[in-house]
Amino acid sequence: MAILKVVGMTFTCRETIMLLFCIFISCLPFCSSVTRNDRPIIGVLAQEVRSPKPNQNSYIAASYVKFLESAGSRVVPVMINQTLEEYKTLFNSINGILYPGGAASLTSSGYARAAKIFYDLAIEANDRGDFFPVWGTCLGFEQLTVLTCGEKVLVNTNTSGVALHLEFTNETANSRLFRGFPPELMKELASEPLTENSHKWSLSMSTYNSNDELKNFYKVLSTNTDGKIKFVSTFEAHDYPFYGTQWHPEKNAFEWTKPYIPHSPSAIKTTFYTAEFFVNEARKNLHRFDSEEEEKGALIYNHSPVYTGGRGSFEQIYYF
Ligand SMILES: *[C@@H]1O[C@H](CO)[C@@H](O)[C@H](O)[C@H]1NC(C)=O
Ligand SMILES: *[C@@H]1O[C@H](CO)[C@@H](O)[C@H](O)[C@H]1NC(C)=O
Ligand SMILES: *[C@@H]1O[C@H](CO)[C@@H](O)[C@H](O)[C@H]1NC(C)=O
């Protein structure tokens, strides 16, 4: 019989295994807290307002902030028109970034410029093993296509105000994004109009299939059609934690301004499982602010959202 002698005590083989097992178990919470960041902070990109006023030059719709906060993240606004150095410092302080929907130019806005800087920094970081997730919603999804293939290859679709069910692809089951969704919710997403679309531009499947840069970078997880054109509605990158939805996961729970925004229990679950997924991705990143003071000064808590009275698309907006 194998025998282990430790500080004058003698253990049998079975006792040794039990001892090692106990050490392993007691180490687990410690080990996982080292590689998981339970205080994630995600940047949300601001964009130009259509008619600027004093103190209202750029904005973030509050629903994107609530979306991330609902899953346990704090939010930092990423202002437009900052220097490259400022963006680099911020990049190394936050754990992920979200490009919201809206109407900024995909090629010449402050939104597009900042999105490109963070995209390039994220590629570089992920390449050296510094996991940094990027999420694009609607305009943000479209911005990702421009950043990946270097040009605007979108086509016009009749999708500016409609809730749709998702047409899942054969890639969905093995996707990172949808893997943690409850099977029941996946069935509902595939059969009920739970995803709200507010876009005039889309990445058509035929463009995707003929564009090697997009095809090599992203796998398509769902498609939709406006009756004529089949377009990509959800994608994730093959080799990077980059995700995009042409639909709006944040609106179901947090926007009440349009009759076509779904608010059923399954629609609300769609908001939360999507947020939970992305915030969990951000928990894998260990960037942090240099000091607690810097962190406090950067958080969106320093700003107050304005109730817009349901005019336009958003209930509440942060103006900068
Ligand atoms: C950003 O810079 C552009 C070009 O210099 C300027 O027109 C715009 O007003 C600036 N916007 C904000 C929000 O600072
Ligand atoms: C656009 O889609 C809506 C349904 O979402 C439909 O009622 C309308 O007729 C369509 N318009 C065109 C020009 O196809
Ligand atoms: C999914 O289908 C496409 C087109 O039919 C095919 O090229 C691809 O290999 C399939 N992927 C998987 C994971 O089965």
Automatic annotation (TrEMBL):
Catalytic reaction(s) noted: (6S)-5,6,7,8-tetrahydrofolyl-(gamma-L-Glu)(n) + (n-1) H2O = (6S)-5,6,7,8-tetrahydrofolate + (n-1) L-glutamate
SUPFAM superfamilies in the record: Class I glutamine amidotransferase-like
GO MF annotations, alphabetized: gamma-glutamyl-peptidase activity
GO cellular component: extracellular region; vacuole
Catalytic machinery residues: C138 (nucleophile), H248, H248 (proton donor)
Entry's localization field: Secreted, Extracellular space
Presence of keyword Secreted: yes
The keyword Ribosomal protein is annotated on this UniProt entry: no
UniProt EC number: 3.4.19.9
Top-rank taxon, per record: Eukaryota
Keywords, alphabetical: Hydrolase, Secreted, Signal
GO biological process, any: tetrahydrofolylpolyglutamate metabolic process
InterPro entries hit by this protein: Class_I_gatase-like, Pept_C26_g-glut_hydrolase, Peptidase_C26
Family affiliation: Belongs to the peptidase C26 family.
Protein name (database record): folate gamma-glutamyl hydrolase
Organism lineage string: Eukaryota, Metazoa, Chordata, Craniata, Vertebrata
